[in-house]
Amino acid sequence: MATLLDTIGDRPRHPEKAHRPDQPVMKKPDWIRVRSSSSPVFTETKNIVRENNLVTVCEEAGCPNIGECWSKKHATMMIMGDTCTRACAFCNVRTGKPAALDLKEPENVANAVEKLGLNHVVVTSVDRDDLDDGGAQHIADTILAIRKRSPNTTVEVLTPDFLRKDGALEIVVAAKPDVFNHNLETVPGNYLTVRPGARYYHSMRLLERVKELDPTMFTKSGMMVGLGEERNEVLQMMDDLRMANVDFLTIGQYLQPSKKHHAVSHFVTPEEFKSYETAAYAKGFLLVSSSPLTRSSHHAGEDFAKLKAARQAQMSAA
């Protein structure tokens, strides 16, 4: 797993966090167990990622499910480089000034998807506030390249917020991903400390706008708990997402990448996660994934099949 001390040349991984006071790191409870993997399939997946010069959020964000997912040839592609222009307090992705876009990347991603034989792929990216369109065209090009190589593969995108990038969202939606995901990450009261470069109501409006542009497109959002939020704030956030007609909600435990990142306020019990799931279904989400190790792209292929089935059942009952 990458750490705060990692460098590219002489550049630290998180220069903006280097001088922050250390935050306490809480011991993980018994119900959070992360398994590593040394299976041949894990190694094969890793080799395909390396051969195509790809970056994965699995590695860059230190995802706890990498052992499980890569052993099933499931890797979440992170495009537009490994360096983000934002400095979110929870995130372990490298921050700084990114390199120029790799124009071969869409084809490289499509090649890896074909080699991995994926039925469903998740493509995410760093924030690229330095680009006029926030990288929207590059995301669209990647969707189209995958469709050309693997026409039967469904594509899920997990996008930046395209803050102050007029027309960017429309470019991505026009490429017709099967699922449009944008994570709110946390409740609005935490944004100044957890996600300072973003705006809660802009992100909410982004998700609502997707449905206005294409009512048939599945929308999805996720949040972390354990960042100091109150239960009533989580429930209000669910209501906000339903007002934006979001179909799928994921809720997972925040895990602190280093002493310089935002501290974990508390570990949410499996029973509390189940309670959130029950509440979310009662509010009308088609699908909910709520557990300590839930992450946006974990089991994404299986979840997409459930999402389609849930919509069909809803339409049949109408």
TrEMBL record:
Q: What class of enzyme is it?
A: transferase
> What cofactor does this protein call for?
[4Fe-4S] cluster
**What Gene Ontology molecular function terms does this protein carry?**
lipoate synthase activity
Q: Where is this region: Disordered?
A: 1-24
Please write the reaction equations for the catalytic activity of this protein: [[Fe-S] cluster scaffold protein carrying a second [4Fe-4S](2+) cluster] + N(6)-octanoyl-L-lysyl-[protein] + 2 oxidized [2Fe-2S]-[ferredoxin] + 2 S-adenosyl-L-methionine + 4 H(+) = [[Fe-S] cluster scaffold protein] + N(6)-[(R)-dihydrolipoyl]-L-lysyl-[protein] + 4 Fe(3+) + 2 hydrogen sulfide + 2 5'-deoxyadenosine + 2 L-methionine + 2 reduced [2Fe-2S]-[ferredoxin]
SUPFAM superfamilies this protein is in? Answer: Radical SAM enzymes
Q: What's the Enzyme Commission number for this chain? A: 2.8.1.8
Subcellular location, in the record's words? Cytoplasm
Q: According to the record, how does the cofactor bind? A: Binds 2 [4Fe-4S] clusters per subunit. One cluster is coordinated with 3 cysteines and an exchangeable S-adenosyl-L-methionine.
Pfam families linked to this entry: Radical_SAM (PF04055)
**Which InterPro entries does the protein's record reference?**
Aldolase_TIM, Elp3/MiaA/NifB-like_rSAM, Lipoyl_synth, rSAM, rSAM_sf
Q: Enumerate the CDD domains for this protein.
A: Radical_SAM (cd01335)
- Tell me where in this chain the Radical SAM core domain is found: 70-286
- Name the principal localization, coarsely classed: cytoplasm
Give, as in the UniProt entry, the pathway in which the protein acts: Protein modification; protein lipoylation via endogenous pathway; protein N(6)-(lipoyl)lysine from octanoyl-[acyl-carrier-protein]: step 2/2
Q: Which PROSITE patterns match?
A: RADICAL_SAM
In terms of domain of life, where is this protein from? Answer: Bacteria
Entry binding sites for [4Fe-4S] cluster 1? C58, C63, C69, S297
What positions does the entry give for [4Fe-4S] cluster 2 binding? Answer: C84, C88, C91
Q: Where is the composition biased (Basic and acidic residues)?
A: 8-24
State the HAMAP family in the record.
Lipoyl_synth
**Record family assignment:** Belongs to the radical SAM superfamily. Lipoyl synthase family.
Protein name as catalogued:
Lipoyl synthase
| Organism, as annotated | Pseudahrensia aquimaris
